[in-house]
Structures are given as C-alpha cells and as structure tokens.
Amino acid sequence: MRSNRLRATGPVVRHVPRGHAYVDALVGAEPAHLHPADPPVPGAPAGQWWPHPALTPRWVADHAHEIDVLHVHFGFEHLGVDDVRHLVASLRAHDIRLVLTVHDLVDPHGTGERYGRVLGELVGSADALTTLTPGAAAEVERRFGRRPQVISHPPLVPAGVLPARRTGSPFVVGLHLKSLRANVAALPVLDACADAVAGLDDAQLRVHLHEDVTRPDHPRHDPEVLRRLARARADGADVRVHAPLDDAQLWRDLAQTSLAVLPYTDGTHSGWLEMCHDLGTRVLAPDLGFYAQQRPVLTYRHDDLTASVERAVHEAHARWAQGEPAPGGDARVLAAELESARAAHREVYLGVAEDRVVRGA
C-alpha cells in the first residue's frame, strides 16, 4: 500500500462501475482522482462501462500503481468462478484490496445458477463485504458463511433538484416496463394494474416502454406486449413509448406519480424504489427480495397477482384521498442518510487500505 499517499489524500477506489447512480451518490463532491471514471471498453460505444476492464487480471497488473481498492458493485455476471479466482490472485499480488457490495442475490439479467457461484467466490474473497439490508446480510451468511456489514442504500436524487410533488386528481399509477429485461413480468402486472385502476373513478394508469423494444429485431421485442399496450391506451391508459429518460425527466415523472409499481419477478434491492422514496412517491413492490426492508412499501404477490395488486392499489388510493403523504421526500432526513452512507464507506475504504482487513461482523 502507498501509505504516505493514503495518509495525505485517502485511498484511490476503482469502482465497478463508476458510472452508476449509486456510486455517484456515494462519491458526492470527493476529489475525482480518488474515484476515477470508468476506463473505455474496447469496441464499445462511449459511455458503456461493461464488460468492465478492471475485472481482468491484466488490467489490474497494468494499473496497480493507480489504485488502492477495487470496489465491485455490479457487472460481473459475465465472469466464471475461475475468472474471479484469477482476478483475486492479481489483486493480492499487487496489494490491492477487494470490497464487494452485494446489491443482488439473484441476477436481474437472468444468468441463473452461475451468478450464484460467482457471487459466492467474490463473497469469500472480499476484504470487506457490505450489503443494504439486514435480510440480505442474513441470506448472504446463510448461503456463503460470511455476514456483510449493512450500509443502507444512499438517497439517489440530489436534494437541490427535488421536483415538486404532484397534487390533485387523478390518482396516477405508474408502471415503467423500460426495455422488458428478463425479470420484468410485463403482461401479468400490466393486466393486474389495469384491472385495479378500472375500479376507481379518479385514477389513471400510466405505462412507459422504451422504444427500442418496438423494433422486431430487438432481442426482447414482444408483439403481445405492444398489442396489450394498444388495448390499454384505448381503455384510457396513458401509454408513453420513448427513448430512455434522462435523470431530470425520470425524477419529474416519478414525482408526478401517485403510486409507482415495480413489475419484477425477482430481485433483492432497488434503485428505482430508492428514487421514489427520495421523491416522496409511494411504491408497490412484489413481496420478494428485501424491498420492504430497504424502504416502506406496499406489496403484492405473484401467486395472487390480480387480487393483491387490487388491494394494494385501492389502499394507496384511500391514503392519497385522505391526504396522507407517502414515506420519504424529506430533504433534511435524506441529507443525513446520505452523509451516513458516505461516512460508512469512507471507513470501509480506509480500513482495508490501511491493512485493517474489515470482515462483516
């Protein structure tokens, strides 16, 4: 370790990836050289960080003099167990510490059992191990024999740009299908939401879809989803097909939503849920993973989808009609939570970088 530099400026942390809202929140206004930008990916368009070069032994060897800590968040699902072992060997050979945050216990992109084996190898090899909720920490310990330190998800929406919350009618149920990735139950959740909204006089369903999946050559193109959206529009839903929203557009949309529905078939934690909480928008999430530990949510069950969505939508509508605010949206509380998350990460980085190897308690 480069101890003199560490004492002077702090450890240099290579995040995988750096270009992610979660990492943006953690880094804040810290000097850019302590959290360098993602390196370019050969053959990929500008701004694409995957597959991340820093997850290869060669990159580690070539850049070992530049970093003290490798912090892996996402983007390792393309690796195999042997790849992780070679990566860890290179990190150890060059005295670089490995920090792992377990965001996802299952891969939202659908790589199956291999993801669990790779995650287990990373968990066992990390010098410091964190996750976002007590339930996830317990599950990591049950599966892999190590209990991570719990550091709550940092707020993602900057306090200075919190848009005004929506007031007045109608009650808007928002469903973002995006690009129909593997863990999105588009048709069942869309139908359940449409049925639930149909039973309310002053409610509207708003559905978003990324325009790329309307192309027949797109790998997740689904003509049935498009037909069902056309029918929903004819029935009065506000259906919006567009390019991915930028942050400001997305925050504005979520702030103007009364109830945001997460249409996931699996998952562990959610940045989408975090954004909604920051904005003071109520969330309806499936009763899986640890969404309900991350932030207060209403829940539905996939094995009782229509009825459970209807109950939750009607409960949210009743609270809205009574003027009950959703959890979150308090700038002072969010600022304190953000600083707490940043401070906890600084301690983790300093601990491993100074050879005080941090193991989850």
Describe the structure.
It is a single chain. This protein is an alpha/beta fold and 361 residues long. It folds into 2 domains: 3-156 and 337-353, Glycogen Phosphorylase B (Rossmann fold), CATH 3.40.50.2000; 163-321, Glycogen Phosphorylase B (Rossmann fold, 3-Layer(aba) Sandwich), CATH 3.40.50. The protein is 40% helix and 14% strand. The protein has helices spanning 3-9, 21-27, 57-63, 81-93, 113-125, 134-144, 186-198, 223-234, 247-255, 271-279, 291-294, 305-321, 331-353, and strands at 13-16, 69-72, 97-102, 128-131, 149-150, 171-178, 203-210, 238-242, 259-261, 282-286, 298-300. A 6-stranded parallel β-sheet has the order 8-7-6-9-10-11, with helices on both faces. The chain has a 5-stranded parallel β-sheet with strand order 1-2-3-4-5, sandwiched between helices. Helix 7 runs parallel beside helix 8 (223-234).
Q: What is the level 1 CATH name of the largest domain?
A: Alpha Beta
Mean pLDDT: 94
Walk across the major sheet and give the strand order.
Answer: 8-7-6-9-10-11
CATH fold label of the largest domain: Rossmann fold
Computed Rg: 21 Å
CATH architecture of the largest domain: 3-Layer(aba) Sandwich
Shape, principal axes of CA atoms: globular
Total strands:
11
Strand content: 5-15%
Question: What class, by secondary structure content?
Answer: alpha/beta
Written as H for each helix and E for each strand, in order along the chain, the element string is HEHHEHEHEHEEHEHEHEHEHEHH
What is the count of helical runs? Answer: 13
Task: Indicate the low-confidence ranges by residue numbers.
Answer: 356-361
Q: Considering DSSP H and I runs of 4 or more, what fraction of the residues is helical?
A: 40-55%
CATH superfamily placement of the largest domain:
Glycogen Phosphorylase B
How far do the termini sit from each other? 24 Å
